[in-house]
Amino acid sequence: MRKLVLLGGGYGNMRILLRLLPNNLPLDTEIILIDRTPFHSMKTEFYALAAGTASDHEVRVAFPESDRLTMVHGEIEKISMDENCVVMENGDCIEYDDLVIGLGCEDKYHSVPGADEFTYSIQTIGKTRETFKTLLGLPSGAVVGVVGAGLSGIELASELRESRQDLQIKLFDRSPRILRDFPERLSNFVKKWFDKNNVEVIPSSNITKVEPNLLYNHEDTIPVDAVVWTAGIQPVKVVRELGLESDSSGRIVINQYHQIPNHENVYVVGDCAALPMAPSAQLAEEQAEQIVKVLSATWRNQPLPEQMPEIQLKGFLGSLGKKQGFAYLADRTVTGRIARLMKSGVLWMYKWHNG
């Protein structure tokens, strides 16, 4: 029996499962999914879980059920591509014929002293639960620092404001303005929301050190009761340790078929893959669509296309609490209630399509 092993149950591998099961998998092939949890976690909604405005149950979706899908739960110790084997932390070796690496990312601390030890994370559902317990357990008037004003930092700061009106929230932005790579109208809308809702945005920040209850921004020291780090990501350690060619962010260089050069039975999807676009759930799903087509052609001994189509992304949606939002779609900016309803609709559709 041919084995397709999927590492990680994130957006990319979830899409592969839904495309192959139940009827598009060759009869001589089975799928083994390895993940630390028995459900698919919607990482794009972890900010709401951390802020306490969404329950744990709301950010989970069940994996599809099939007698041709085997679930393995646990931590991965090593990927041995020379032996076509995934070594688990308990010593088990899971062999594969085809492998899709979709293990996601972890925080990148940019060598800032104390950042890994004294900050909280929303990169995994387990770490997000810990962040939730800390933030919701803070006393009234406590100061929360959110380091990094990308989409995750913006959504976390705004959601936390709606959850805890009594907290002081400081959002540290490395750029001179919020979302500087997008139209100024978008930046102004988000900044006005933060001003109106008493979230302090600190532009042109450079966090140089983190200590218990203290942030160093340039030469200034800022007392804080908790810090959440959203200032960069990198592939997980087991992927970085593969020693493969990677980009400046540590993401693995792949060919146009999403394969690792010289290991054409190994594919990389999502945050671990070096692509021209920034990592996102949408990008992982579009990659997965192409990987399924490549796998299907390979299994049927059909030639692959000389040129894979370029991945086209639709844009992004962001929330500012439960009532306001912002979007950048097809080079157009949408703000306010409509953008928030659009994001809620996309989330509802995702849950519906995934059962």
Automatic annotation (TrEMBL):
It comes from Planococcus liqunii. Belongs to the NADH dehydrogenase family. This is NAD(P)/FAD-dependent oxidoreductase. Pfam families: Pyr_redox_2. GO terms for molecular function: oxidoreductase activity. SUPFAM superfamilies: FAD/NAD(P)-binding domain (SSF51905). Its cofactor is FAD. Keywords: FAD, Flavoprotein, Oxidoreductase. The keyword Flavoprotein applies. It is an enzyme of class 1 (oxidoreductase). Its EC number is 1.6.5.-.
